[in-house]
């Protein structure tokens, strides 16, 4: 089974997307020590696709704006394992310096990446999605993990890699 990692700075909606893709099915909490300590993984389903999915989490999500060493290591470990990286940004907040830091991690890895502009529902959602072009990681896919919008476009974007 292919592995997909959801990465991005705190508060962009990674866990919301994880929960939506995994549903009630199998939301494993991974308690292994070290870099994997506070990440979660599960089996996702989207349309006809099934894949293993990793949510990069972290207690340091309580400290917005900082990218701790632990979060960086956890993100790098998840990217390493992934066949495809889902890189989330917040379409409402636009692109912040922390997003650039994560973009650099993905770029350096050379892994296939799909850029997702989350929180794109309703008015004002699209502005940040356009902003995300500046990351140089291709066309952002507008999405609302919370409202379940754009899931068909997400499926279309990830299908070639899985
Ligand atoms: P994470 O830190 O990247 O895992 O982000 P979370 O999944 O914990 O979400 C952070 C906040 O963004 C929460 O308050 C979510 O309810 C909210 N959120 C997640 N997805 C969406 C979305 O599609 N639209 C809006 N408006 N809010 C969202
Ligand atoms: Mg989270």
Which secondary structure elements does this structure contain, and how are they paired or packed?
Layout: E1 3-7, H1 14-22, E2 27-29, E3 40-46, E4 49-55, H2 69-81, E5 84-90, H3 97-109, E6 113-118, H4 125-131, E7 141-142, H5 151-158
Parallel strand pairs: 1-4, 1-5, 5-6, 6-7
Antiparallel strand pairs: 2-3, 3-4
Helix pairs in contact: 2-3
The structure holds guanosine-5'-diphosphate and magnesium ion.
Strand content: 15-25%
Task: State Rg.
Answer: 14 Å
- In this structure, how is the largest beta sheet organized? 7 strands, mixed
Please report the total strand number as a whole number. 7
Name the helicity range. 25-40%
Q: Any idea what the shape is?
A: globular
* Helix-strand sequence: EHEEEHEHEHEH
Class per helix and strand makeup: alpha/beta
- How many helices? The count is 5
Widest β-sheet, arrangement of strands: 2-3-4-1-5-6-7
What is the first-to-last residue Cα distance?
9 Å
